From TrEMBL:
Name of this protein: Sigma-54 dependent transcriptional regulator
Domain Sigma-54 factor interaction span(s) in chain numbering: 147-375
PANTHER family: PTS-DEPENDENT DIHYDROXYACETONE KINASE OPERON REGULATORY PROTEIN-RELATED, TRANSCRIPTIONAL REGULATORY PROTEIN
Keyword flag DNA-binding: yes
Organism: Spectribacter acetivorans
Length: 477
């Protein structure tokens, strides 16, 4: 299935521009993203469109300001009607507003201002819709990198996104690593009135301390050793759009002061310059750290915390929304299959096992496991015995379905019907202990630590539960 020629054709991208040089950097990025770009000038576009079935899945149109979009209007309209088209405006913001308005009217799938970051382009490409009725180029709908899951906690997250998107408020996105904080940030941007501007992410924890300042604010030529040319920073790149400061908890105190100033005064300077620039940028920040604890430890500024925390969104860990596991697996499989044609399926038992696992690495860990299984078992339907041992380990009890848990009162025996022993075997004592500990802890927390009520819920005498709590060192608070 890999390398299916029809599929390769699906991935081709037509790039339209005034001349090849103007489109060079976007062509390079598209090549890197395996979109097999083919270039055509505005002048030749009409001829290209004569072909009955275009061998492309999408198009990118680069307007560098010298050729206004209006000049080739009918060809461009024809293109946008046949292929989902990404519009790249490669000239200073403000100059091309008319062309941009025209661009919207011509029905472009998306519009971005240069300079464009690779991951920004990848994200936009993932969101492009399928080609419209173009014969040969019709393909499966490409599922996108979007927030999947209809569990109550995720519906709540979506409600919060909806509520805050329309405002310009700063948002602090909290949650464990891999829960989808960046996706939440992208969703806020996508649904905000800054959506036509850039979404510029920056992982503050991944950039060495001494480079972070110039990464954020840019620098002038000669500002420090190695600053051979002047460079804009992320604030400038995000002008009119959104800057996503990931892992803000890892930012040093002196950088926190500088970010706070932009939040308060909307101004900053490039490193090595005393010219003050203004920033029309919405800030979204995320962290897996407990910032209040970091404030107490003196690692995070309280004033910045309150500035950022205008609207907090907490993304729940995957173990708190097991019903999302199956749809997320489905969406990951569909997306990857659209990319390389390899399919994979799971039996119901395997899906239940995946949903019962604790997922310490959250959705990222789930995605990695699914990707690995596709490589190991392409085009197979996987049962429970194909899953990694840690998923079937003593930490995990496999239940037949969520309904069985809810029906426990009526048919307690059903809960264990789905437990399956694999050839790897199991440490029964450890498994039983963990099951006991888990159910006791849950019963206590569901009953606000009231032991008598928890005991009733577990069908135990109070004294027996107290004994077990002592044995396993479980406290009631
Ligand atoms: N609800 C979801 N539906 C589909 N995919 C998801 C969902 N949540 C997360 N993902 C995927 O999981 C991976 C990790 O998500 P993301 O990078 O947004 O997490 P994060 O919380 O920002 O992680 P970190 O704290 O490590 O930066 C990404 O590949 C993302 O596409």
């Amino acid at each position: 299935m890999v390398g299916n020629p029809a599929h390769e054709q699906e991935q081709r991208m037509l790039v339209v521009g005034a001349e090849l040089d103007a489109a060079r950097s976007i062509m390079d990025m598209l090549g890197f993203l395996k979109r097999r770009p083919a270039f055509v000038t505005f002048d030749d576009l009409a001829d290209e469109l004569e072909t009955e079935s275009l061998p492309f899945s999408a198009a990118t149109l680069v307007s560098d300001g010298r050729v206004g979009l209006g000049e080739h209007q009918s060809a461009i309209d024809g293109l946008a009607a046949r292929l989902p088209t990404l519009l790249v405006l490669d000239y200073p913001r403000g100059d091309g507003d008319d062309s941009y308005r025209h661009g919207k009217a011509a029905g472009f799938a998306s519009c971005m201002h240069a300079p464009i970051a690779l991951n920004q382009l990848r994200f936009e490409l993932d969101r492009l819709p399928a080609p419209r009725g173009n014969g040969r180029a019709v393909r499966r709908t490409r599922p996108q990198h979007t927030l999947v899951g209809q569990s109550y906690p995720m519906r709540r997250v979506r409600q919060l996104i909806e509520r805050v998107a329309a405002t310009d408020a700063s948002v602090l996105i909290l949650g464990e690593s891999g829960t989808g904080k960046e996706l939440v940030a992208r969703e806020v941007h996508r649904t905000s009135n800054r959506a036509a501007g850039a979404f510029v992410p920056l992982n503050c924890g991944a950039i060495p301390r001494d480079l972070l300042e110039s990464e954020l604010f840019g620098h002038e030529k000669g500002a420090f050793t190695g600053a051979i040319t002047a460079r804009p920073g992320r604030f400038e790149m995000a002008e009119g759009g959104t800057l996503f400061l990931d892992e803000i908890g890892d930012m040093s105190l002196d950088m926190q002061v500088k970010v706070l100033r932009v939040l308060q005064e909307q101004t900053f300077e490039r490193v090595g310059s005393n010219k003050t620039l203004t920033a029309d940028v919405r800030i979204l920040a995320a962290t897996h750290r407990n910032l209040e604890a970091e404030i107490e430890r003196g690692n995070f500024r309280e004033d910045l915390y309150y500035r950022l925390n205008v609207f907090p969104i907490e993304v729940p860990p995957l173990r708190d929304r097991p019903e999302d596991v199956e749809p997320i697996v489905g969406s990951i499989l569909a997306r990857l299959e659209a990319e390389d044609g390899i399919s994979l399926d799971f039996t119901d038992q395997a899906l239940v096992a995946l949903a019962s696992y604790r997922w310490p690495g959250n959705v990222r860990e789930l995605g990695n496991i699914v990707e690995r299984l596709r490589i190991l078992y392409p085009d197979e339907r996987l049962d429970i015995d194909r899953l990694p041992s840690r998923i079937l380990g003593a930490d995990n009890v496999v239940l037949t379905s969520g309904d069985d848990i809810r029906n426990m009162e009526r048919a307690p025996g059903d809960v264990i019907n789905g437990v399956r022993l694999t050839s790897a075997g199991v440490d029964l004592r450890a498994l039983t202990t963990r099951l006991e500990v888990r159910l006791i802890t849950q019963a206590l927390s569901l009953n606000d630590g009231v032991v008598a009520r928890a005991a009733k819920m577990l069908g135990l005498r109070r004294t027996t539960l107290v004994e077990k709590m002592r044995k396993y060192d479980i406290s009631s608070d």
